[in-house]
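pinging the channel bc i need a second pair of eyes. not urgent but kinda urgent?? the chain im working w is below, pasted from the shared doc
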Amino acid sequence: MNLEGKIAIVTGASYGIGRATAIALARAGADVVCGDIETNDENDELFAELGIFHRPCDITDESDVVGLVEQAVSPSGNLDILVNNAGVGLVKQIPDVTEAEWDHVMGVNLKGAFLCCKHVIPYMQPSGGSIINLASNAGLLPRAHDPVYSTSKGALVAFTKSLALCHAKDRIRVNTVCPGPVGDTRMMLRDLEATGDFDAAYQATIAASPMALSQGRMIHVEEIAEAVLYLASDAAQFITGTDIAIDGGKSLGVPPKA
């Protein structure tokens, strides 16, 4: 997994999966530039040690995305890896969803990936590259509690496959990683806290995933980052248009009883 000389962009890298991914890519030798609408001062020391550059970026704002990409592009004009990780959730039924909420979820989860791909692909076309979109097991199968989020992630999976077909001729690989349930992310923690009974919701979430149930825990962000690292590396040169579900078997169907 040697990424020496590679240039990488990671969105939503201040916390959770994005943070773990940026660290994994940097430790593998990549020059990493991160963009996030929020900052996390706790990252300053480690990011500096690893040479990770971070700048504010609203991925729904095209001018912000252009600035992020231009910051990352090497003097030779190369850009090798894009990780579209930034995302937001929404646990709400359709009759209760406002137009603004719909637009926000679709904007961050889908439009943001579109804008980043739009401005990164021209820099990848001369020599190839790898784009990894962070979707969700919600993009692979229906979920009853978050239809807007599930729709956005399902569309991201379809977008990924289309791009993989369009740009295979350019040696640009495009794949999705579909996590869930990942325990140490702010999105998950907020959803569990919003139920009013954190412990019960935590156990119910584990019970919905066969491997999570057997191991008695959720997935760690570092385990997602390892899959992204693999897809970004030359070890995955013939993998494109693929969805890697890291969900402990949750997307397989109804888990067996313990």
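so The CA atoms of residues 41 and 155 lie 33 Å apart. and Strands lie at 7-11, 31-36, 53-56, 81-84, 129-134, 172-179, 243-246. — does that match what u expected or am i reading it wrong
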